Amino acid sequence: PVAADGGRTLTMVRFAQRPDYRQENAPDGDLVTFDEASSTVTFTVPAAPVVEPPPPPPAIAPVNTVAPSLTGAAKVGEVLAAEPGTWDTEGLTFAYQWLRDGEAISGATASVYSATEDDLGKPVAVRVTATKAGRPDGRATSAPAVVTLGDAPTVVEPPVIGGEPEVGEQLSVSEGTWSAEGLTFAYQWTRDGTPIDGATGSAYTVVEADEDSVVGAVVTASKPGYADGTAVVEGLAVPGEEEPEPEEPQASTTKVKVLDRPVRAGERVELRVAVRTVGDMVPTGTVRVKVMGGNELTRRLGAADDGVRTLKLPKLAAGKHRVKVFFLGSDEVEASRKVLTVRVRPAKAGARTEGPGRSVVDRW
User: Fold this and answer.
1) 79-128 per-position pLDDT tens digit
2) Which one, out of 140, 154, 186, 265, has a CA that is 20 to 30 A from the CA of 195?
3) What are the Cα distances from residue 356, in Å, to 52, 261, 362?
4) Torsions phi, psi of 4, nearest 5?
5) 3-class secondary structure for 31-85?
6) Nearest by Cα to 109 from 145, 87, 142, 82
7) Contact criterion met (CB below 8 Å) for 53 and 125
8) Which is higher by pLDDT, 216 or 59?
9) Would you say 89 and 62 are in contact if contact means Cβ atoms under 8 Å apart?
């Protein structure tokens, strides 16, 4: 039997016939004939057992050999990009799912992701799914990156202070223009760079303590998830009480008169020095007298002297002596001087001198 016979009934018929012959006992004996005989056998062929082919080996998912990675700054507002990594299979397509704290972020299925305020301080990673027809999917996840504050906004046009910098007047500070939108602003007024207690509004009223100082402000721009940006505003000078202009020193003149003339050798020359101003200022200060080739004398001119002092020179020898008298001046009165020649006559007969050409120093 063949496979097609399995489970079917087969019939076999066997036929037998003896050949005709003449009887042997007669030469012309009768012809003896025989009818054909048959035998039938019926049997059933059992069905062949069904042998199932072995199942094909299961398909193997792609295997990741180099983990996916992230590029870009992990900061709020910055874009992170996913690199799928390396796999042991070619012809793969990749799908992405971004994760926050290991949980899928709704809608974040692109190869790039912009970090938000919700990610601040949390680890963000990407899960990559590798697919190929006829094979199960392979999956691998990148190392996480903790998201930090975004960069602080920067000033485009700086804030300015408006108003009159005078006691009792109100100053105001503008926000300025910044590199980001959606900002909120805080203010701190300063006096010579030092914060003023309680002055945290956009307006400030100048007080007496601000006189003779520079009033400025610091503007802080804030946005959730980002570092604060600050701008130091150029301040305004608050004048103090006006001080009277200092008066210019008054001009002076010095006049000298020799008393008790004639002067003879061995006598002390007495000078009357008078310092006068062009106004009503009483001169005070120092009077200095220089005798050419001799000594230098000084005397203080006080307010009670009313600008006049009398002083004596050392004893002089007979002859002409050049004398310079100086008023050294003060903050209120300018200096002045007088140069004169004093003539000393010879001593009278019998008069005592200290010797020719010698003088006695008068200690004041």
Assistant:
1) 999 999 999 999 999 999 999 999 999 999 999 999 999 999 999 999 99
2) 154
3) 161, 20, 18
4) -65, -20
5) EECCCCEEEEEEEECCCCCCCCCCCCCCCCCCCEEECCEEECCCECCCEEEEECC
6) 82
7) no
8) 216
9) yes
- Report the alpha-carbon distance of residue 246 to residue 65 in Å, rounded: 88
Query: Which pTM was predicted?
Result: 0.53
Question: Are the C-beta atoms of 326 and 335 separated by less than 8 Å?
Answer: yes
Phi, psi of 208 (to 5 degrees): -60, -30
Residue 222 token pair: 């804030």
pLDDT of 359 above 70:
no
The CA distance from 238 to 191, in Å, is 10
Residue 343 · residue 320 · CB < 8 Å: yes
DSSP 226: B
DSSP 3: G
The pLDDT tens digits of the residues spanning 167-209 come to 999 999 999 999 999 999 999 999 999 999 999 999 999 999 9
State in Å, rounded, how far the first CA of the chain is from the last one: 166
Tokens representing 311 are 């002083």
Please determine, for residue 355, whether its predicted confidence score (pLDDT) is greater than 70: no
On whether the CB atoms of residues 74 and 104 are closer than 8 A, the answer is no
Report the phi/psi class of residue 350: left, alpha or beta, with left for phi > 0 and alpha for psi in -120 to 50.
Answer: left
Interior angle at CA 227, CA 225 and CA 232, nearest 5: 145
Task: Answer positive or negative: Cα dihedral of 20, 22, 24, 25.
Answer: positive
Three-point CA angle 64, 68, 69, nearest 5°: 160
φ, ψ of residue 305 to 5 degrees: the values are -75, -15
Residue 124's nearest CA partner among 64, 85, 71 is 71
